[in-house]
Structures are given as C-alpha cells and as structure tokens.
Design a protein that fits this description.
Layout: H1 3-29, H2 35-136, H3 142-145, H4 161-168, H5 173-179, H6 184-189, E1 198-200, H7 210-219, E2 226-228, H8 236-240, E3 250-252, H9 261-270, E4 276-278, H10 286-295, E5 301-303, H11 312-316, E6 329-331, H12 340-349, E7 355-357, H13 367-375, E8 381-384, H14 392-399, E9 404-407, H15 435-443
Parallel strand pairs: 1-2, 2-3, 3-4, 4-5, 5-6, 6-7, 7-8, 8-9
Helix pairs in contact: 9-10, 12-13
Length: 454
C-alpha cells in the first residue's frame, strides 16, 4: 500500500466518523420542529389499532353468542317437529283404530242381526210346521213334534271369530280334533291360531300317534307357546320336533323315559325363549345341565325333581357365566345326590329365587340355610321335608326370613324309593304312604313370622 492510498483511506474514514457523530449529535441537540405532529400521528395509529382490537373481540363474542342461540333454536325447532310428528301419528292411529273398531262393530251387528232374522224365520217355520202337524196328526206328542222337520238354519260357523274361539277353548285336544272331522266348515273353525297356543298331549298320550304329533307341531310351530308331554313315551324323532317351536315358553317333559341329553340339545338350540321347564323324573345328566344356562337365558321356573343322574357339578353349571340367574322357582325334591357345595354356589348367584323345594335331599345340612340367608334374600317359600341332617333349631331360625316353610327331620317314607342315606330300596308292589309316615310331617311344620302353627 502506498502512502497516498493510506492518506486517502484515513481521510475518508475521518470524514465518515465526523459525519456520523455530527448527525447523531444534531438529532439529539436540535429538537425537531414537527415532533407534536409525529406524536399525534402515532397516537392516532395507536387509537385506530386499539379500536380495531376492541371491535374484533366484541365481534368474536357476538359471533359465539349468535351461534349458541342459533344452535338452541335449531334444537327447539327439531323438538317441536318431533312433537308435531308424534301428535300427527297419534291422530292417524286413533282415527284408524276408531274406524277399525266401528267397522268391526258394524260387522258384528250385521252378523247378530242376520242370526236374529234366521232365528225368527226358523221359529216361524217351526211354529207353522207344528200347527200343520197338529191339524193333520193330533195324536203326535209335543216332544215328537219338536224334532219334525229339517235342522235349524243357524250355523255356528257364522258366529264371530272371538265367539268361536271362546267356545273351542273349553274343549280338549281330542275334542278339537273330533270337531275338525265333522265337516269342512268346522275344520276351518279349528284353524284359529289362539286354539293352538297351548297343546296338552298328556291327555291323549295313549291314543295319538307319533306322526300326528309331528304333523301338529310342524303345522302350528310358530303359534305354540305351551307344550305338555307329561308321561308320554315317544320316539326320539317326535321329541326332536319340539325344537321347531321357536316361540315356545313353557315345556313339560316330566316322566318321559325316552328323553335323552342329545334330544335336550336339539330342544334347547331351537327354543331359546323357554321360561318354564319341567324335567322331573327323567334321565338327564350333567350334559343337559350344561346346556340350560347356555341357551335358556331367561329361564324362571325349573323342576328337576327325582332326576338323580346329574351331580353337584351339573347343578353348579346353573350359576356359571351368564347362567340361569333369573330363576324364581326351583324344585330339587328327591335329588339325593345334591350336597351343600352345589347349593352354596347356586345361592350365591340366583338372587331372585322365591320358591325352593329340597324335600328328600338327605345329604343337605344346616350350612345351606346360612348360604340361603346370605345369597337368596328374596326367598319366600322353602320346603325341606325329610331332610334329616337339617336341625330344627336351624329351621326355626330360617323361618323368620321366609313367609312359608315346611320342615321335617324324619327319614324318607318307603314310597319315596330310597332310605335315609339316599340308597334305593327294594321295590314293593302297591307301596303307598302310610298314616304313620304322614303324621310327623304335620307335627314338624314350621311357619314364618306371618303364620301360626295349628
């Protein structure tokens, strides 16, 4: 670098420093002439910005308030529309019901008027015929004259369907079938669905064929609500047809010697809505007991009296998983194999139990009464006849918790078929309960707090 260039650089730097510091000093030392105008301009900008922020905040609050009001108005409008729709629907249904009732009443009045006219016409014909017969043959008696002529023109098939149903409800299954064989009109009358809601095959078990039972169940499978096969000895195919009755609510297959676990599997899979089930004196085992809680969720009444093929494990199935926790009535009379362990688990789950019968369960002890007091607090009726291991003191203590109780510490009578240990006795022909077996039952009855012993 030459000295001339150094001098030029120093001179330029010195001028630049002087200019910078002079301008800064001038700005500080010499006040601006228009400072008030600048401050006024800044204040105006600040006020404008503040007003903008305030308007934005107010507008946001107003917008949220307006949205809430709009939402509430929409909800109120929707409710009003729903109420108006329900009101219109009620008006339409009411008018339809009134019109249907008026038409039905008009039809019934027309039928009644028609029957009255037929009856008057028949009476006039009969009176005219009786007068003619008296003039032609006065020796005929009045009883003979009443049967002269044709049959009356009044036909039962012309009655209203409700009246026909009420008439046929008083007939048994056998009588209904016989009525269906009278004529075609009577055969059509027995096709009323309400007549086949309840079918009792136990009354005709000795005269009806299996194929007729299968045909009847297949024909009315959607209308049958109650079936009774008590004491019927039927083929497996016949009992399997019960599974087609999807709407079945009550089933009684007690004393059916041909009922097996495999048949109960078909029935349970096809009839899940059963509320009442009677399996008394059958050969079911733990396999059937395992099916009951799996398919019959709403079972309320169960009878297992004298079913001695299942064990404690089978009874415990009723309380496992979903189980039969809605049981109201349970009959275990004559089940000599039941012990306290099964009853303990059952009482811990079946809280709605009202009626319990353990008569003849000779292995039960006082422990079940303590379990019942803790688990089954809605128990109202308890029957413990011939339970020799349940003491009278425990029974008296339990009587305060139930409304009706029967207890007896005596050994089972001979006609029960087993001894005090539950072992079967030798069969005696003509075995009937004796007077000395029945008297201890009456003496040992214990009552609840609302009843007194006589």
């Amino acid at each position: 670098v030459t000295p001339e260039l150094m001098i030029k650089a120093c001179t330029f730097h010195t001028k630049n420093l002087v200019k910078t510091h002079f301008c800064t000093w001038r700005d500080i030392a010499i006040p601006h002439v228009n400072e008030d105008e600048i401050l006024a301009e800044k204040m105006e900008k600040a006020i404008t910005h503040y007003n903008y922020k305030l308007q934005k905040s107010s507008f946001h609050y107003w917008h949220s308030l307006a949205e809430n009001q709009r939402r509430k108005l929409k909800e109120v409008l929707w409710r009003i529309q729903q109420m108006l729709y329900c009101h219109k629907l009620k008006v339409v249904l009411t008018n339809w019901r009134d019109k249907a009732r008026s038409k039905t009443k008009m039809r019934e009045d027309e039928l009644i008027l028609k029957h009255e006219r037929q009856l008057k016409r028949w009476k006039s014909k009969l009176k005219f015929r009786v007068t003619t017969e008296e003039t032609s043959s006065p020796e005929l008696s009045s009883s003979e004259i009443s049967f002269v002529g044709d049959l009356p023109e009044c036909d039962i098939s012309l009655l209203p369907e409700k009246a026909i149903s009420q008439i046929f409800l008083y007939l048994s299954l056998r009588d209904i079938v016989i009525c269906g064989q009278v004529c075609h009109a009577w055969m059509l009358m027995i096709q009323t669905r309400s007549l086949w809601n309840t079918i009792d095959f136990s009354m005709v078990k000795n005269i009806i064929a299996d194929k007729d039972i299968v045909t009847t169940l297949h024909r009315w499978r959607l209308n049958v609500l109650r079936l009774n096969f008590r004491g019927c000895i039927l083929r497996p195919r016949t009992l399997r047809s019960i599974g087609h009755c999807r709407n079945l609510q009550e089933l009684n297959v007690s004393d059916c010697s041909t009922l097996t676990d495999e048949l109960m599997r078909y029935i349970s899979e096809g009839c899940p809505g059963v509320l009442y089930l009677n399996l008394s004196n059958t050969t079911i085992t733990n396999r059937t007991m395992r099916l009951l809680p799996r398919h019959f969720y709403n079972l309320q009444n169960l009878s297992l009296a004298y079913c001695r093929k299942f064990t404690d494990k089978g009874l415990q199935y009723l309380s496992l998983g979903n189980g039969c926790h809605k049981l109201i009535c349970l009959d275990l009379s004559g089940c000599t194999q039941i012990t306290d362990a099964a009853m303990e688990m059952l009482s811990a789950k079946c809280h709605y139990l009202h009626i319990l019968d353990v008569s003849g369960c000779v292995l039960l002890t006082d422990q079940i009464l303590a379990d019942l007091r803790m688990g089954c607090r809605q128990l109202r009726s308890l029957k413990m006849l011939y339970c020799r291991l349940i003491s009278r003191e425990a029974a008296k203590k339990m009587a305060a918790a139930v409304q009706r109780q029967e207890h007896s510490c005596n050994d089972p009578p001979r006609w029960f078929g087993y001894d005090y240990e539950g072992k079967p006795l030798a069969k005696h022909h003509g075995a009937t309960p004796h007077k000395e077996d029945l008297e201890p039952i009456v003496r040992d009855l214990t009552y609840g707090s609302e009843e007194e012993a006589v």
